[in-house]
Task: structure prediction
Amino acid sequence: MLGFLAKRLLQLIPTVFFVSVLIFSLQKLLPGDPATTIAGEERNPEVIEQIRRQYHLDRSWPVQYAYWIDGVLHGDLGESIRIKEKVATLVAEKLPVTIQLALMAIVIAVTIGLTAGVVSAVMKDTAWDYAANIFALWGRSTPNFWLGIMLIFLFAVELNWLPASGYVRPTEDFWASIASTIMPAFVLGNAGAAVLMRHTRSAMLDALASDYVRTARAKGLLERAVVLKHAMRNALTPVITLGALELGELLSGAVLTEQIFSIPGLGKLIYDAVFNRDYAVVQGVVLVTATIYILLNLLADILYVLVNPRLRS
Amino acid sequence: MAQATYSDALTAAAGETVETPARRALRRLVRRKGAMVGLAVIVAFIALAVLSPWLGLYEPTATSWSAVRKAPSAAHWFGTDNLGRDIFSRVIYGARASLLAGVISVSIALAVGVPLGLVAGYLGGVVDALLSRMTDAMLACPFLILAIALAAFLGPSLGNAMIAIGITATPIIVRLTRGQVIAVKHEDYVEAARAVGNPRWRIVLVHILPNILPALLVQATLSIAAAIIAEASLSFLGLGQQPPAPSWGSMLNAAQAFLTNAPWMAVWPGLAIFLTVISFNLLGDGLRDALDPKER
Result:
């Protein structure tokens, strides 16, 4: 296990290096002189020159990268030109909100996805199976920002059951926090549920057709015990790792969802940064989400080895 | 008698036309109702998008202060928006931006990704290791976040959104192509082509590429669905098609503010995205099943 972990961590080094180069290179896409772009309305040549020196824009690319990555490794992601605050501070402030949303979404995705997947496999070729497959197709094809708008219309405008937007911290008022995040969490979890359902169904169908399930049935076990204890336990192994990866995907969906529901998380931060040409914040958020995604990938691999006895040795 | 039967069998075999793999796949695809419904909807959307200037629709950008936020009626089938523009007309014209974005961004991804994947898969070694790590790095950035960052740095426009989506979709194509090449490069027909002295480029382009096309076709179809959602997302965020030009994403953005008194503004563009994306997904799933050799 330690050997596997060491090998996996070594493999991460080049990936993380290329991710950092990719994110650093983003600012090179800016049309014209980056110093002038960062200066915004300011046209004073002295100020622009000072920005050029401050951001090392007068140096070569590799030197600029070295300065940038040195800062990143010391926790310095730059400064927001709009709010005049450290990007790392802003990210640290917004990240817990997005994590709360993503965790709620993954609970919804796992609950719906696993249940639908298991039911669909056990009742293959019945109306339940068709319904679950239609649900999966719907989940894959519905743009989550449209679903969000429709849910606001139904539950906030028409029924007046839930708030249309806004966010309450769980530490302030737990139930108000749930009410303010349940719709966005459902929107985020919907697509994840579809992916999990398809994988669970496929894994369950394989498990149900396997020799050990046939043996369990031949022993005279109840069908419920066969499905829950024998088939499901084995079928869920790959699904656990998929759940970890889905959590990473949710970070992507959070940009739109947080914007629609006015939730002050990482997604809203990058959206506002894009429109205020706050490029350091955009880079910072991409870097943080990519790092989280890479770590979740690693976690998924470790989980896969841990839950699979054949790989553990 | 036995002789006659053998002879009949030979005649029958000689007269029988051998079904090509493409024809067999097409036959299987036609049998899949979901894929056919998807294809019909896609063809209908393409026809509407191409023919829109000749359909006698309202001008999609023409505002009318006397027709602001009118509910669906005989005059305006889908109602009007906050500036009095006809929503039906904007949905039809919006199909152009969405379909164009879907096809062009996937074409960009294929144009860049397939050659890179072929090179990585066939050459292996250092080139493969380098390209694979770069692919991993791009795949490590969540799809939409990378597309948003690229579109933000390139500047907001439909063209830049297509480039951003195309670049973001490229690593999936590289990885798929590489995997497919590795799977077939030691097949007998490739070894035979190598043994008779074909140059590398010829082996890759003439012998390997045609054999991995089915997998690429399936991925391209499913990628168009993802690209259409991505374009709508970028336009929704103001990074794609710029107003007043119609696009489904930007129409949904405008609709948000009028949910209480004009909900139809949000229904139709969303339904259009949903229908197009589900159709590409149905067609992609159908193609995957039709092209799967195990399904024979």
Q: What stands out?
A: The CA atoms of residues 38 and 279 of chain B lie 4 Å apart. Residues 87-123 of chain B form the longest helix (37 residues). The mean pLDDT of chain B is 88.
